[in-house]
Amino acid sequence: QVQVVESGGGLVQAGGSLSLSCAASGLTFSPYAMGWFRQAPGKEREFVAGISRSGGSTYSADSVKGRFTVSRDNAKNTMYLQMNSLKPEDTAVYYCAVRTGTYGRGAVYLSTDEYNYWGQGTQVTVSS
Q: Which of 16, 76, 79, 100 is placed for a possible disulfide with 22 were both Cys, Cβ 3.0 to 4.6 Å?
């Protein structure tokens, strides 16, 4: 059974940093593209950042570009999201997603319906 688990969320003041991790059991990450999404109360789930299966290509939403960095360590079967200069509007539940139908080493996917495995989410709260 595949289980995807996020960790590293918490409460931080505006301007601070947090690092999220995503790990899995029952699934090896290395062949697949992955992504981070977030969902704030009353809003739809939105794309934050994506990374290709090799880690050589990444893409971030404009709202986090220059502040958040996505990376992966396939040897550790783990993906990361380093979040710096956090703002109150970054407050949300953050989700890790895996797309097992990945085509091309450099492919990055931005839509929720392009991913088929999801974690339960980790809460990130940024106070002003």
A: 79
